[in-house]
Design brief:
Elements (H helix, E strand, L loop, with lengths): L1 E9 L5 E9 L2 E6 L8 E6 L4 E9 L12 E10 L13 E7 L3 H5 L4 E5 L5 E5 L5 E4 L4 E10 L14 E15 L1 H19 L6 E7 L6 E5 L20 H4 L3 H12 L5 H9 L8 H20 L1 H16 L2 H13 L6 H16 L4 H11 L3 H11 L13 H21 L10 H21 L5 H9 L22
Antiparallel strand pairs: 1-2, 1-4, 2-3, 3-6, 4-5, 5-6, 6-14, 7-12, 7-13, 8-9, 10-11, 11-12, 13-14
Length: 489
């Protein structure tokens, strides 16, 4: 964690006040004795070491790391550190290249990036391994993993008479064909973090972000205030990467290219965003997670079937039909019975009801089943074990046949979602807490396989990855085929 306390001034003002900047990965806090600034502004200052430009957007609640008293808390978007004069304004533009480090990439790469050697005179030497760049996306922008060598030759904290340190770490580089601005960089970093979150199983922060800005020779350092983490809340002590570079090296480029297209597809933006928001560091109630996962699956099915677009067309067609000569003859008596006048408002209401009936022709339980059928029936295959948890003391009380139990489980998921989403009074058919926790993992495994499929991954490869997921190992054991060992797949 970095802490910088010093004199800061609002950009455009010569008056300096004490302020505190705290940077901890992708979590940033900024406090100043300048009060009441507008929604968007910038502060420039720092300590004796470096100068920073802090981009803020309104006020924020106090964080846990503040040390100054009598200060205003500002919601920080970005922090820029440059060794040259800052350009005025509240935007960061002209970015041609961005690079950053994901700590979890080291385990995922699983490569020896440095090596020991010995000279003919039996003296030990250390050297970096020359490794080729790993292309994730070929162009527009070009995204790749490269390996950066760092050594301790000029590190004042290390006595180079007795000690020498060499590092060769993987970094992500994004190169833009045309100069861009910081929101595009932010968006691309988020997409890359989500991709590796799915590939590795968890990620923490995007750190040591460096920018090349057009017409500037020196690099700039960027700090982003935003939670890029994935699955850290449920990270197990025995957790390991879901995939390894060695296993998917031949497909890594095609997987990422497909993911980048999916990530930037506005059609799926909301459901993708809600999934990753539900799997950040912040604690969430189990009831809210289940509701969120069911909404994601419902929304996804509506998108791939395009039923909402069809319903919208139907609504317009019906409204237009009502105002034809035949439509007037048909609907005027109906409107009169309802004591309605024949006008646009009432025609639209009727058209909306009919279109809504079209959307309701497939119930939520049926939508879950249709998706489940496409992805190895993971919901149905967990039904018996989870329903049994309702009768833990006497499992023999379950009298339904296997197919009825599976149908009941779909209905229970829907009933539970409705109970917590709409605050229903009737709790009949709602899953208990233990059942709910198991069901959350089942739904999560289904969502993961859907996301993997949008990387262009074969369904069987997606199945093998979720089997490797230590968080979901009990719910995904039904996907293991006879003779398979998860650690050998």
């Amino acid at each position: 964690m970095e802490r910088h306390i010093g004199l800061w001034r609002k950009e455009g003002s010569n008056d300096a006040e004490v302020a505190e900047l705290i940077i901890d990965g992708n979590q940033i806090e900024f406090y100043s004795r300048v009060y009441g600034e507008g929604p968007r502004c910038a502060f420039i200052g720092g300590d004796n070491d470096k100068t920073y430009k802090v981009f803020t957007n309104g006020s924020s609640k106090y964080g846990k790391n503040r040390t100054l008293e009598n200060v205003a808390s500002y919601k920080t978007q970005y922090v820029l550190q440059q060794n040259y004069k800052y350009k005025p304004g509240i935007s960061i533009e002209g970015i041609t290249t961005c690079s950053f480090f994901i700590p979890e990439l080291i385990d995922w790469n699983d490569l020896e990036t440095v090596e020991w050697g010995v000279t003919e005179s039996q003296e030990l030497i250390a050297a970096e391994t020359k490794l080729p760049n790993i292309i994730l996306k070929k162009e527009n922008p070009c995204i790749e993993i490269y390996f950066e060598v760092k050594h301790s030759l000029f590190d004042p904290n290390i006595d180079d008479r007795t000690t020498f340190v060499i590092e060769n770490r993987p970094r992500i580089r994004i190169a833009y064909k045309e100069p861009t601005e910081v929101s595009q960089v932010h968006n691309d970093i988020r997409g890359i973090m989500q991709f590796f979150g799915l590939m590795i199983g968890h990620v923490t922060d995007a750190i040591d972000i460096r920018l090349d800005i057009s017409e500037e020779e020196l690099k700039s350092c960027l700090y982003i205030n935003g939670d890029f983490s994935y699955n850290m809340r449920t990270l197990g002590t025995m957790d390991k990467p879901r995939t390894k570079l060695s296993k998917i090296n031949n497909n890594i480029n095609s997987y990422f290219e497909c993911w980048y297209d999916f990530y930037n597809d506005h059609k799926f933006e909301l459901i993708r965003t809600m999934y990753f928001m539900g799997n950040r560091r912040k604690d969430i109630y189990a009831e809210d997670i289940l509701v969120q996962y069911v909404k994601i699956l419902e929304g996804y099915h509506l998108r791939i079937t395009e039923e909402e677009q069809v319903a919208s067309t139907i609504e317009k067609d019906i409204k237009n039909m009502i105002f034809t000569d035949d439509g007037k003859r048909l609907f005027t008596p109906i409107f009169e019975k309802a004591e309605w006048s024949f006008n646009t408002k009432h025609a639209k209401a009727v058209a909306t009801w009919i279109a809504g009936g079209f959307l309701g022709k497939v119930g939520l339980a049926e939508r879950l089943k249709l998706l489940d059928d496409e992805y190895f029936n993971i919901i149905a295959n967990n039904a018996i074990d989870i329903i049994k948890l309702e009768h833990r003391d006497n499992a023999s009380e379950i009298e339904d046949n296997e197919q009825e139990i599976k149908s009941k489980f779909y209905r229970k998921i829907v009933a539970t979602r409705n109970y917590y989403s709409h605050y229903k009074l009737n709790k009949d058919n709602v899953l208990n807490f233990i059942q709910m926790c198991k069901t959350i993992n089942v739904l999560k495994a289904l969502i993961l396989m859907i996301l993997y499929s949008h990387m262009g991954m074969k369904l069987d490869d997606a199945r093998k990855i979720v089997i490797e997921d230590s968080e979901l190992r009990f719910e995904t054991k039904c996907l293991i085929r006879k003779g398979e060992r998860p650690d050998k797949i």
